[in-house]
């Protein structure tokens, strides 16, 4: 892989901040009063990993930094070979800078970008052609036809945020699915969607400065942060008001009923399937029998419908 040292400022729109190891203390500190591409999805409530609530608290210095999961770790370890494959397939089209630098928009220094790779004109290092983002996925859910812009919406927001920050037009995605299927996608800058992102980012920063805490939502990271905020267990009693207690008790009862119904209907589906592997209804797969652990018999697993790629405009509608 050819690594280009020294990168000129991109189209005079952004300036180089520094190079930080992703997840390091310096990396987290540099982002405290800024917003990166993966964070803007959380601001909009689109991130699978972070909620607006949890991000707000982490930006306030409350709660522990996001812990790297096994999935995140393997994605980081596979980044170099996936980039190498991307470069091999585009040999001669551009030079690749994969130094992991962080750049900030000149007009909005709080809008930062840390692309996995920056694509530079092979004959003129002063011309930047675009960026490349590397992703790994267990399944193809959320990914559309190869060569299109049909990527999961939380990755689309990341690409659009970077393009807007850097003043660029094209973001390539190099994706490894299920460990062996390589695909590429292209997302192009969109002025309307970029405006949505900028406005959302500015509003979030205003909430941070004013100390306006976001509402509690159903995201798992929201509950995780609340747990971190109250690690002690004091031997005291609190009286919970009706507007908190009643929805909680209703949800617990509904969950209990849903679990009972799911157990019964799963058994009925399993009985109907017999030794079949897959169950279809109305042309769509709804369940699959999979092997049990060790000597345990097979069990039925629900098959969710494929996730259709969405655009930011669709989620905002």
UniProtKB/TrEMBL annotation:
Residues 297-317 are annotated as: Disordered. Residues 26-163 form the YqaJ viral recombinase domain. InterPro entries: Lambda-type_endonuclease, NF-kappa-B_Signaling_Reg, PDDEXK-like_dom_sf, Restrct_endonuc-II-like, YqaJ_viral_recombinase. Pfam families: YqaJ. This is YqaJ viral recombinase domain-containing protein. It comes from the Bacteria.
